[in-house]
Backbone:
């Protein structure tokens, strides 16, 4: 999380830049999909559009972005040949029909609870593996999109990616048990356990953020810093945890640079902000307490 924030703020980061770009694309694809769902239903067209954004400029950028595969792929150890594959998805010539079946199932009027239905959709999508690259990422995004589309989520706050990564071996094993033995019940239990775990973590995180905001507002009042500008800066930090004096000046409409710098210095003295650029000019500041809360559930 901090690596992504640093990347977006044009700051150096010790993390793998390629992995950061993938996460940035993931975020862009997430919000693009949420916006598109306001005018377009869940469909293969939407899935292709999202996939194109997801892998642009990353390791899969030359592997037919936004198009279902036209060649055979397989899952195995890095560099493994087809003969040593752990799993070989369906041949490319039937992928369009299989994806049409998924689209039809998505829109089918049935009595399946949405969480059960998206668990089935996700497992089937990963089995078809319709793209040459990015199937895991797009498959995890589908979970959020489907629940948002169905009105189960008002915001994209359910991220099962961390749970599936944390239990990666078990996750892959359950998918293989579905494929080889039809153990859908076991897969559903595993999936729903993840929904519970991630939901509880999201609830705890939201509660901590609310408590942090209340405690900092009280801190400002005690320091007699309850001005419109001080409260405004606090609101900005919960939207953009890395800021510059120029950002603040523009967002709060403060004409005086001196006023902005004094306000930032007070927040630094109160240990709300931390200078992270190491520069004397064009400094950048991190709202570290907030970042520590929101980055939980993003790092194994």
Residues:
């Amino acid at each position: 999380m901090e690596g992504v924030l640093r990347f977006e703020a044009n700051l150096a980061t010790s993390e793998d830049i390629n992995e950061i770009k993938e996460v940035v694309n993931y975020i862009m694809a997430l919000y693009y999909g949420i916006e598109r769902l306001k005018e377009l239903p869940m469909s293969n067209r939407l899935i292709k559009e999202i996939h194109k954004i997801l892998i642009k400029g990353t390791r899969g950028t030359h592997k037919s972005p936004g198009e279902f595969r036209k060649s055979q792929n397989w899952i195995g150890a890095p560099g493994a040949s087809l003969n040593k594959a752990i799993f070989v998805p369906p041949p490319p010539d039937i992928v369009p029909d299989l994806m049409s079946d998924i689209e039809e199932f998505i829109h089918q009027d049935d009595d399946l609870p949405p969480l059960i239905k998206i668990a089935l959709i996700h497992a089937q999508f990963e089995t078809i593996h319709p793209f040459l690259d990015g199937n895991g990422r797009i498959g995890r995004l589908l979970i959020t999109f489907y629940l948002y589309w169905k009105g189960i989520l008002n915001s994209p706050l359910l991220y099962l990616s961390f749970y599936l990564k944390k239990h990666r071996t078990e996750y892959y094993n359950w998918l293989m048990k579905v494929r080889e033995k039809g153990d859908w019940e076991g897969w559903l239990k595993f999936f729903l356990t993840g929904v519970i775990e991630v939901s509880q973590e999201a609830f705890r995180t939201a509660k901590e953020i609310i408590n942090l905001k209340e405690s900092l507002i009280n801190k400002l009042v005690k320091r007699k810093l309850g001005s419109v500008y001080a409260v405004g800066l606090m609101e900005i930090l919960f939207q953009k945890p890395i800021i510059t004096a120029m950002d603040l000046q523009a967002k709060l409409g403060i004409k005086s640079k001196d006023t902005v710098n004094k306000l930032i210095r007070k927040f630094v003295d109160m240990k709300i902000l931390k200078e992270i650029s190491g520069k004397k000019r064009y400094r950048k500041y991190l709202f570290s307490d907030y970042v520590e809360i929101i980055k939980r559930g993003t790092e194994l």
Q: What stands out?
A: The CA atoms of residues 112 and 118 lie 10 Å apart. The longest helix spans residues 184-222.
